[in-house]
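Work Package 4 report. The design task specified in the project plan requires that, given a folded chain encoded as structure tokens, an amino acid be chosen for each position. We show below one input record used in the internal validation round.
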């Protein structure tokens, strides 16, 4: 089968590591994201997980909170996880964030001695063939697939993968709804993340 304990900004120069990339909008990061990353560390013997907030997902038209705020919330949420790092690499690129570009960048960074993984949900695993340049993804990555909505990952096809037996009911959609309505976010957001979002008015109605 494919949990643990301050987030470090940007990846340091290290080699021969088992590194997992965890991309997403993280708008906002919720407790489920952290729990899944921790489970991946434990079950897949990862040395680090790099959280990569995207500039703009090719699959989502919704306007995201500013990147600087999403990075700040990630840093707050990951303070207790030693293996976690936050990278602003995708935020520094114009246009949609394509996973193949990110994979190529970090494959060069870790070098030939390292192993590169990508954490994603079963919903995205099922449509991975539709992502841009899937042949690059198949060459560079092993996918760590976690269930979404009770569904397990699809067969591996040409992609290497590990099944992660971890899930969490939290969702960013529900977090944004509760923050907009002024409702409690316990069980969904870390208290520090909720306070930051509220203080910045990130998801207030009309924001």
């Amino acid at each position: 089968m494919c949990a643990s304990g301050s987030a470090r900004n940007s990846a340091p120069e290290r080699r021969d590591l088992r590194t997992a990339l965890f991309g997403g909008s993280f708008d906002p990061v919720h407790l489920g994201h952290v729990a899944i990353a921790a489970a991946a560390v434990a079950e897949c013997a990862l040395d680090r997980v790099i959280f990569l907030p995207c500039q703009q997902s090719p699959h989502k038209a919704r306007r995201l909170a500013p990147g600087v705020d999403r990075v700040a919330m990630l840093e707050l949420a990951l303070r207790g996880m030693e293996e976690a790092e936050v990278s602003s690499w995708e935020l520094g690129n114009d246009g949609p964030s394509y996973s193949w570009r990110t994979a190529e960048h970090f494959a060069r960074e870790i070098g030939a001695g390292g192993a590169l993984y990508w954490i994603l949900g079963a919903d995205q695993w099922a449509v991975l063939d539709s992502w841009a340049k899937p042949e690059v993804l198949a060459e560079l990555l092993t996918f760590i697939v976690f269930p979404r909505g009770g569904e397990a990952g699809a067969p591996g096809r040409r992609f290497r993968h590990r099944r992660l037996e971890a899930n969490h009911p939290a969702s960013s959609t529900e977090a944004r709804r509760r923050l907009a309505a002024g409702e409690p976010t316990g069980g969904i957001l870390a208290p520090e993340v909720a306070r930051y979002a509220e203080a910045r008015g990130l998801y207030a109605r009309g924001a």
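The chain has one domain: 15-200. Validation will be extended to a larger panel in the next phase.
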